[in-house]
Amino acid sequence: xxxxxxxxxxxxxxxxxxxxxxxxxxxxxxxxxxxxxxxxxxxxxxxxxxxxxxxxxxxxxxxxxxxxxxxxxxxxxxxxxxxxxxxxxxxxxxxxxxxxxxxxxxxxxxxxxxxxxxxxxxxxxxxxxxxxxxxxxxxxxxxxxxxxxxxxxxxxxxxxxxxxxxxxxxxxxxxxxxxxxxxxxxxxxxxxxxxxxxxxxxxxxxxxxxxxxxxxxxxxxxxxxxxxxxxxxxxxxxxxxxxxxxxxxxxxxxxxxxxxxxxxxxxxxxxxxxxxxxxxxxxxxxxxx
Length: 289
Ligand SMILES: NC(=O)c1ccc[n+]([C@@H]2O[C@H](COP(=O)([O-])OP(=O)(O)OC[C@H]3O[C@@H](n4cnc5c(N)ncnc54)[C@H](OP(=O)(O)O)[C@@H]3O)[C@@H](O)[C@H]2O)c1
Hints:
Oligomer: single chain
Strand order of the largest sheet: 3-4-5-8-9-10-11
Strand content: 15-25%
Bound molecules: NADP nicotinamide-adenine-dinucleotide phosphate
Largest sheet: 7 strands, parallel
Low-confidence stretches: none
Number of helices: 11
Mean pLDDT: 97
């Protein structure tokens, strides 16, 4: 598969998002493991997770443990796979998502994530979401300590605006390797962050790149332009969406979620789908309702 760069690592241009396999509506473990194995067999070398990808209270890290299990039971070489996890978001168990960006929490959470994932260090650790109660520089400062202590190999941020990207890059002394923000045909307001990352040479990981778990399936009926380009290439509109995102900048690495092998097997083929400049322009210009 086409390769892209995150910091010092080359990864598949299409990654796998682990969230649908651990939150509400998740499949049984056997199907999840088959989904992760299908991604790995197809050449995926980037898997995105978070300690907060779980359903009930008391199962923090469900998705990290699932990924660790799938990697250890896979027949290929897991050493080539970059697992990107996150900390700073919490799920108390009532369906809500809360924040804790205190440095002490982030440092403890990262160590707990490392325990679940195994290995000597976390490949990529991302600060999940700014905490309004904690100065951003203090939260990002925890990533500096984690890097210096060798708990994490690379540091990233998520749900950040352009000012926060610049601040994080400053606090990290130029060691910020990735930004993960929401971006899809339906949600384009992170375009400024996508463009800034391209300018700074930082990887940009669009989250919910197909519009999110509940809307991804009917992307084509929500976006005529994507459906039409898909028809012209005889591929799925989801594949077109991912190919469009890849075409926006060489620093973009989408992480579509999946809970079925067929979904990720289709998505990875976006890395081989070449859209014309006219098609990319048309998809970028699509007017949203
Ligand atoms: N940083 C953050 O704050 C944040 C927030 C949300 C998500 N994320 C990350 O981003 C990842 C992706 O986002 P997401 O999972 O919310 O939404 P998404 O990737 O937009 O949509 C996921 C859904 O798309 C379906 N799908 C995938 N490929 C498909 C294809 N080729 N054709 C048809 N359907 C397809 C899957 O269906 P099946 O389930 O049927 O396979 C899956 O449930 C997450 O898994 C998570 O790792 C990060």
